[in-house]
Specification:
Number of helices: 3
Shape: rod-shaped
Order of helices and strands: HHH
Number of strands: 0
Strand content: under 5%
Length: 71
């Protein structure tokens, strides 16, 4: 079942990575001096975005390993 999910729903990894990149980017903007009062929110967006990118990349890696094993 895991193979099927990873293979057939690969777009999820891409979506997680993209959401992570957007979140990371917005969080980074909130570090600007003019937005000092939003710094804590920026830190959390930075952390969440980093995690989403990590999960997306890990899913892609597992998918690649499974596809390589199926050959």
């Amino acid at each position: 079942m895991l193979k099927t999910v990873l293979r057939d729903y690969g777009w999820i990894h891409l979506g997680l990575g993209l959401a992570g990149n957007v979140t990371f980017f917005i969080g980074s903007i909130l570090f600007l001096p003019a937005l000092e009062s939003w710094k804590t929110v920026g830190v959390w967006l930075f952390i969440v975005g980093s995690f989403l990118m990590l999960v997306g990349a890990a899913g892609e890696m597992v998918k690649g390993i499974i596809e390589k094993g199926d050959r």
